[in-house]
Amino acid sequence: MSSPTPEASTSRKGINKKVKSSKKKSEHTPVVVTEHGKNEGDNPHWAYRPPAGAELLDHTIESEEFEWNVIRDNDDLEIWLIRVPDSIKAKHLEGLEIAPPVSLRTARLGGLTRKNVTHDVWSIGDDDIDVMGGDDVRGLSCLLPRKKKKGKLCIAPKAITRHIIVSAQPPLPTPPENQPIVHQNPARPSYSQDMLKRQFLPYGARSQLNETTAEGPMEVDSTIPVVSAPKEKGTEEKASKGKKRKVEGEPHKKHSK
Questions:
Q1: What region does 53 belong to: left with phi over 0, alpha with psi -120 to 50, or beta?
Q2: Around Cβ 79, how many Cβ atoms within 10 Å?
Q3: Verdict on whether the full-model pTM lies above 0.70
Q4: What's the rounded Cα separation, in Å, for the pair 124 and 82?
Q5: In this predicted model, what pLDDT tens digit does every residue of 99-158 receive, in sequence order?
Q6: Of 185 and 219, which is predicted with more confidence?
Q7: Burial (0-12, 13-18, 19+ Cβ within 10 Å), 64
Q8: Domain boundaries, the chain
Q9: What is residue 155's predicted lDDT score, i.e. its pLDDT?
Q10: Residue spans of beta strands (DSSP E) within 115-236
């Protein structure tokens, strides 16, 4: 007898799988009918649970000082945002007196000393400032509880008016005590006034002296007697010859006898 070919065995296995899958599809799953519709009703696992290490916020309002409607209805109230470092608590700010900011520019309002560390209180204005780093607080908004919504937090009806930042002063480098100063110029020698003979006169310092001398009478040199130079003989002879020529040119007068 001849053994079946491997191709025929694989084809039979494929047919058996198709028959089994069709039988599973034909079987109907039982339908469970409940009082509510599908995905409805209360499920104890649907309630919100805070993650590990977090506590659920209690929305019950104890005081109406920061209630949403109170802030909205009172025009004299302003919302100030105060940022403090981790070492400063809210109780440390009690009794702190600062000057109210006059303008919307960045200015220092006061100081706070805590554990031998001096902190400056700054009011961040509309102008650009890079030293204090107050750019991050400008984009924050305030959330206030509201009674109408059962104490849920809602965005405040007013914008934040002032941004206050409490920051520690930068440490200043101080030289160690009892250490000689290496880089220091020697003391300049001092001289007595008898030895100081030179005088510094900048350009144009004597202009006033020149003007006073120019306005005064002009000095005239002493008169020197002028001596006439002796005439030469040649010039005298020429003059006498000229006279003779004139005499010779005249007509001779006849003398009557």
A1: left
A2: 16
A3: no
A4: 10
A5: 777 777 788 888 888 787 888 888 887 766 565 666 778 888 898 888 888 888 899 999
A6: 185
A7: exposed
A8: 80-90+106-168
A9: 92
A10: 117-124, 143-146, 152-155, 160-168
